[in-house]
Each structure stands twice: as structure tokens, then as C-alpha cells.
Amino acid sequence: METYQDHPPLGKPETPSAGSAGGVGERQRERIIRAATGVFSRKGYDGARVDEIARKAGLPKGNVLYYFKTKKDLYRVVIEQVLGLWLDALGDIAVDGNPEAAIRQYVSRKLSLSRHYPEASRLFAMEVISGAPVISGHLSGQLRNWVEDKGGVFKKWQEEGQMAKIDPAHAFFMIWAVTQTYADFEAQIQAVTAVEDYDTEIYGGATTEVVEVLVRGLGLKSEASEILSPHDGATRI
Which pLDDT value is given to residue 81? Predict the structure, then answer.
């Protein structure tokens, strides 16, 4: 089963080397973003305080305000990085690609993001539930454009009979709802299942089942799935 651990974590520096002055600055910026994600996910935007974020990052408050002039600037960067992680997870799907393989990979990656970045998922959920006061522009702009672009591929697959005729936007809503619930409602799932090791027992066991349910529900077909009978006992992950 593929995971998405190779994806850059929130705030990870992309260019300066670790030994350079720029590298030190980027590492501090990364620490701030990671700390802010945790604080914002627990306290929300209004409840979070810059000094608490600084303490969690192990840096003076002045360092935080050096890289991010205001709490709102920092919050916006964190949310944008979370959204970027999720959008990148689908990869470069193409009309002539394998629909089943593409969605299996996407769902697996979304579950991996929930597994490794649960605080980021909860933060995004809190922002949207509160009416998306900070990122409404991103939702109606960047996210809408992304759904329309990727949805065009879905529609082509549907025309070719390789995918059930479901509005692409609703197909994405279903995938997001199912995969992110394991992060957003961890306390509920933990209480109901009474598992001892949430990470291993829930994500380790649920991933295959969630992928299978979504693939079947979306009516995805590939040459392999048409050839293999459901009773062949083949595992197509």
C-alpha cells in the first residue's frame, strides 16, 4: 500500500541549504508554521496567541513576527500550505490515464495526509465551519478552478463509461469527507472502536477498505478490473 510520507511536510524549506544563513531562516520559518498549525487547530484563529506559537516553536516572539508580520499573515500561510498539500495529492491525472489506479492513489494519499498531518486537517475544518473568513477567496478561486480542471477529466471518463455519472464536485466532496473524517473525528473513532494504537489499527486497517468502497461507489473501471472477476481473489491496490 502506497503512503504519502514522501510529500514535503508543512513549512519544509525548498531551496536554501541547511548550512547557509538562508537555510537557518527557512528552518525557523518551518518550525513556526508547524507550531502554528498545532496551536490554531486547538484554539482556532481567535483563540490562538502569537506568544503561545512562539513558545511551541522554541523561538522568541520577535522571530515569529519577523517572518510573519501579523497573526493573520501566519494563519493564511498555514491554511494555504494545507490546501496545497491536498491539491497536490491527486497528481497529474490525464484523460488517457487509468481511472481506477488514479483514484486509488488519490484516496490512499488523502488518508496518508490525514494520518501524518491530522492537526492540519482539523484546522482546515475549523476554518470552513466558521464560514471561511480568511480563505474564502482561495475556496472560490484556487479550489474551484482545481475542481473544474480535474472534474473535466472525470467527465471524460464518465463519457467513456469508465466512471459513474456523478457530478465531479460531489465526487470530490465524498472523497474529502471520508478521508478527512479519520483526522477530524479521531476522538469519536477512538472512543467507538476502543483501539489501543489509533495510527496502526485504524489507518493500517481502514485504508484498504476505504479505497475499495470509494472505487466501487464511483463506478471506476480499468482494463484490469474488467478482466478480473470479483471472485478471483486478486488484490488490486
Answer: 87
